[in-house]
């Protein structure tokens, strides 16, 4: 249970008030349970005429508090029998039993009432922590983790924690209080009988604990397999067009069915082990009752105890009142073990280290024109194989530098280093002479504007997509940015104009329209540094012309890094760098790189594209 205690220490502190009230009412409910059961003794004695002792009133302080209290209680009962008769007295005792039970159930309800905000609040906080962590983790984390599995941890695992751990909190805080209070009373009634209870309960606990540990292992495997299923679903939905185009429906169905069968087997194993909790606890409880009944009866029959029959029945009632909390507690332990397996998977995200951190003493943003310099930069994704090697590149403020080369040569990786999506393995990157690692990440990225090959839009209005990175943008400002991006005309032609919802990933718009909204978003941000990653490569000629015109307007006066496959779009760049196997093998203007004395990498790219176009 150490892992469970750690979870409570992490998440309960903001809800200490609710926890204290829950424990208070649990203690109150436990004592009221004892007192309500205590009324059974005089009822039994009256019914079976067992107690013929004559009691006289004892003032408080004349003896032990407990003895005085019990004596005076029986004195008043006898007086009631004398004044009103046995039948009325019995009715009064029965009414008192009902009142005590009402108070007990009221206290039980209040204990649950105050645990609910704690339980729901922890789950809410856990979801918030996970989402916050996902938004700050570096992009590199998600290259090694499947997106579907991350979604499974944020949905399925958090839901499992909610239903397994949080739904057991009430039992976890209530039942031990009831067990402790009842055991204390049992010791007061008969310490000999209670010794058996202290022997039997730990044995039962060991049996339950062993089964619970196996449940945790199987649950962890089941939740991991659920992540595999989510990944398969996410990949299939994202690539449904390809699946249908290649008649691969049967292939993906077989794959999903096989993975689902594994999850089915693991789910059966988990459910069967969890179902074992109730019958196992009931068997152990009944066995304990049988042993106590035999041993207690033997003590009474042999005259080895001061217990009489009513007190022994009261003792057995108290002991039986422990059985249900113990059974519930055992079920809670099973549920908690199941939830702890999910918590392990959630903690893989919550405990993930983010290497992209702010410096302890950040420097202010440079006041210059955002010149960029790569100084002997190497980079590796896995720490073994360098993707970039010996990168030395200077981009003057306001200049346009193009990166060209074969796929996999490192162009996009080089661009990703500037906003610190990754940090160089060796070397440094400077903006106006300041190492970017000496700047706050937020300040650094506030200088950047990105337009990628895939226009990333959100299922929101056109206005909110354009104003995504700018707080409190006005409609006039958004429209001005859209006009520069050649987007205002098609936006106004939609049914709701700037209030039109673009759909999932902008599915209600064409590729050119999505790209122009991305450009409008970058224009509204007004960045000092612009990164264009294959911004026109997926467009038709007409859309490309409109987008390229918008990009030309956007690039004016900004330090721009352009990644392009179509060399015709970069011929006017101030500097063209050719990357090959992670190195800059050639650099110069379009004319210089086509000169006869040039190395020839760029010329070969131009010739291959010309041949392909022909």
Task: Itemize the secondary structure elements and their pairings.
Layout: H1 2-11, H2 16-38, H3 40-48, H4 65-84, H5 86-136, H6 139-144, H7 147-164, H8 169-189, H9 191-238, H10 240-245, H11 249-275, H12 277-301, H13 309-350, E1 372-380, E2 386-395, E3 400-405, H14 411-417, E4 426-431, E5 434-435, H15 441-446, E6 448-452, H16 462-466, H17 475-484, H18 488-492, H19 511-525, E7 529-533, H20 541-555, E8 559-563, E9 575-580, E10 583-588, H21 590-593, H22 601-613
Mean pLDDT: 80
Total strand segments: 10
Strand order of the largest sheet: 6-7-8-3-9-10
Instruction: Report the end-to-end length measured between terminal Cα atoms.
Output: 71 Å
- Tell me about the largest β-sheet: 6 strands, mixed
Q: Which term fits the overall shape?
A: elongated
Estimated radius of gyration = 37 Å
Can you tell me the residue ranges where pLDDT is under 50 for at least 5 consecutive residues? none
Helix run count? 22
Residues in β-strands, percent: 5-15%
What is the percent of helical residues? Answer: 55-70%
Q: Which structural category do the helix and sheet elements fall into?
A: alpha/beta
Q: Could you please describe the fold and organization of this structure?
A:
With 614 residues, the chain is α/β, with parallel strands linked by helices. The chain is built from 22 helices and 10 strands. The chain has helices at 2-11, 16-38, 40-48, 65-84, 86-136, 139-144, 147-164, 169-189, 191-238, 240-245, 249-275, 277-301, 309-350, 411-417, 441-446, 462-466, 475-484, 488-492, 511-525, 541-555, 590-593, 601-613, and strands at residues 372-380, 386-395, 400-405, 426-431, 434-435, 448-452, 529-533, 559-563, 575-580, 583-588. The strands form 2 sheets. A 6-stranded mixed beta sheet has the order 6-7-8-3-9-10, with helices on both faces. A 4-stranded antiparallel beta sheet has the order 2-1-4-5, with helices on one face. A hairpin with a 5-residue loop joins β1 (372-380) and β2. α3 (40-48) packs antiparallel against α13 and α7 packs antiparallel against α9. The longest helix has 51 residues, at 86-136. The protein is elongated and about 125 Å long.
